[in-house]
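input
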Amino acid sequence: LEEWLVYIENVLNDPGAYEAEIRGIASFVFSIFDTNGDEQLDLEEYRQVYRAAGRD
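output
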């Protein structure tokens, strides 16, 4: 736990590291919903995002 807290503190205190972390997470989440791999969300993929967020 201590190592994780140090890591997070370092990320939060370094704007470049924070941006890289957020971009990595966003890219990963996007890839989950981009089921056909075309790097765009079509209407059905977009609907899946809303369903997953509980926004049917």
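quick obs: Helices lie at 2-13, 15-33, 43-52.
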